[in-house]
Amino acid sequence: MIAATKIGPAVREGLQKGVRGTLWMLKILVPCSLLTFLIDAGGLLYHLDFLLAPAMGFLSLPPEAALPLTAGLLAGIYGAVAALAVLDFSMTETILVAVFLLISHNIIQESLVQARSGLNFFKATIVRLLASVATVLCLAPMLPGGEDAGRVVAAVPQSIAPFSAQLQGWVWDTGVLSLQIFLIISAMMVVMELMRAARIIPVLARILRPLLWLMGLHQRVGILWLTAAVFGLTYGAAVIVEEARAGSFEKSDIEPLQLSIGINHALIED
Questions:
Q1: Of 54 and 268, which is predicted with more confidence?
Q2: What pLDDT band is residue 152 in, cutting at 50, 70 and 90?
Q3: Residues contacting 106, CB < 8 A, separation 6+
Q4: What does the pLDDT look like over 125-145, one tens digit per residue?
Q5: Which of 119, 49, 53, 55 has its CA nearest to residue 79?
Q6: 97, 101, 116, 261: which one has the fewest Cβ atoms less than 10 Å from its Cβ?
Q7: Is the separation of the CB atoms in 50 and 34 below 8 Å?
Q8: Mind giving me the DSSP string for 9-70?
Q9: How many CB atoms lie within 10 A of CB 144?
Q10: DSSP state for residue 159 in the 8-state scheme
């Protein structure tokens, strides 16, 4: 139980950390999001697939899969879903694209977030890409192939809205996202402070110890790993930064944690 005198200070500390974490995150996300929007709105996103097309056969995918992979790598899961909606892939091909992007979606933006929270940008990017390739290569032989794999019906392409309307949509979506980020991070920070005051974190760390041991992680990072696994890499990185400032774990714990959550994060939403 938490003493009544500790609840107020814990909530205030959590909200202060939430504000700092939100501002820290938006400095990275807003410019990256704007750049991605401009690339997408300008049609450049759909001309970058030639960079990935030669590798599609290696991944047991048709050349057309380069488009959703490019969209997912640059714009995230939702960009890939939008691209998949207008293509006619088998269920097996769709699963392979989805698995690849569950690990390596939004690679530039999220690698920048990880770089700002303690992991080398290139290491974060390369590890996630290698993990995606290895997983797809292992999974492809286990899935049915050929015409019997089933087809995914393509949706009717949507008409392209004027640039001004797209820009207004981006501004609105970014504003809503910023509010969501503040609410989620603040809630997580407040919960973390309350758990710290109630001394719950050591108990949860002991519960997670077998899983963390299996992944080669120290029990100190258990709550951070769980935060990223449930809420996502971006939110997890913001919590990592605040916990690092508080001296909650050693610097040597950061890299293994970052590599793990780079591969496994936002498991429910994604």
A1: 54
A2: low
A3: 72, 73, 74, 75, 76, 77
A4: 999 999 999 999 999 999 987
A5: 49
A6: 116
A7: no
A8: HHHHHHHHHHHHHHHHHHHHHHHHHHHHHHHHHTTGGGG-GGGTGGGTGGGT--GGGHHHHH
A9: 11
A10: P
